[in-house]
Amino acid sequence: MRLPTRAPLAGALLLPLALASGGCEMMIAGPRAQASDLWEKTYQVSPTARLEIENTNGAIEVRTHEAATIVVKAKRTARAVSEQGARELLSRTTLEQSASADLVHLVTPRNQGLSMGQHIEIRYEILLPATLGLTLTTVNGKVAVDGVTGAVSLETVNGSIEAHEVRGLRKAETVNGSIALDLAGLPSQGVRVETVNGGVKVHMPAAVAADVSVRTVNGGISVDGFGTVQDAERKRRHYEGKLNGGGPTLRVETVNGGVSVTASAATPAAAGEVSQ
């Protein structure tokens, strides 16, 4: 798995993140000092807009609401060997943003001029309309999405991935972490799910029509609970089959971990119903 290369953002604004009303919260943990603040921003968007986030250190969590807005809360935490160093590091940490009614793109620049003993973490909490599309990327942190019906791609390196009641998942990839997916349906393009060190659990409606392809090296494979299952190949490390006559492909790969694909009580959706 290769994380996408960041390209310069045309017209992007380099925004210092405003300190929360209470100012920096300082605390000493052993030899390290910490400073944190909260940046909040609300964007007016169309029902078919996309949100793209490229983070480095920190989790990304997305939930839905009824308003036609994307509400972003980004908690920044700077750590250094001294209180003054933590404050200075926090003050020069920035987010890049590019926003329109159809696309909101947020980037945490990787090069913050960090010295030995310094660390920056940004944790995102997002509220947005269910119909929006998502592309979420981080390096060190969990990625979690709840209730989104648009096209979704999720990627991290060191962290787990969770998706609940997601209808348009296209990709879920991590290296060191488990993947847990509760899918309301599959997009016509299919879904790719990959990890290296971690298990994969996928729940889908019992009547969903899908082709299933699973590969693992160290771990078992279970496919169970669907209306009809036709096994083309069922081995200890490899499984190929059709659920309810076949349809879009669910492709799952891991190295160290088991894979289970089981039926849930959710209402299935036709492939063509997925938001683009």
Low-confidence stretches: 2-31, 266-276
Give the total of domains: 2
3D shape: flat
| Largest sheet report | 12 strands, mixed
Counting DSSP E segments of at least 2 residues, the number of strands comes to 23
The neighbouring-strand order within the major sheet is 1-7-8-4-10-12-14-16-22-18-21-20
Look at the structure and give the mean pLDDT. Answer: 85
Percent helix? under 10%
Share of β-strand residues: over 45%
Counted by DSSP, the helix tally is 1
Structural class: mainly beta
* CA radius of gyration: 20 Å
End-to-end Cα distance, whole Å, is 24 Å
Oligomer: single chain
| SSE order | EEEEEEHEEEEEEEEEEEEEEEEE
Can you tell me about this structure?
The chain is mainly beta and 276 residues long. The protein has one helix at residues 83-91, and strands at 13-16, 25-29, 32-44, 50-54, 60-64, 69-80, 94-99, 103-107, 119-128, 133-137, 143-146, 151-155, 161-166, 168-173, 179-183, 191-194, 200-205, 210-215, 221-224, 229-234, 238-243, 249-253, 259-264. The strands form 2 sheets. The protein has a 12-stranded mixed sheet with strand order 1-7-8-4-10-12-14-16-22-18-21-20, with no helix packed on it. It has an 11-stranded mixed sheet with strand order 2-3-6-9-5-11-13-15-17-23-19. The longest helix is centred in the N-terminal third of the chain and has 9 residues, at 83-91. The protein is flat.
Q: Secondary-structure blueprint of this entry?
A:
Elements: E1 13-16, E2 25-29, E3 32-44, E4 50-54, E5 60-64, E6 69-80, H1 83-91, E7 94-99, E8 103-107, E9 119-128, E10 133-137, E11 143-146, E12 151-155, E13 161-166, E14 168-173, E15 179-183, E16 191-194, E17 200-205, E18 210-215, E19 221-224, E20 229-234, E21 238-243, E22 249-253, E23 259-264
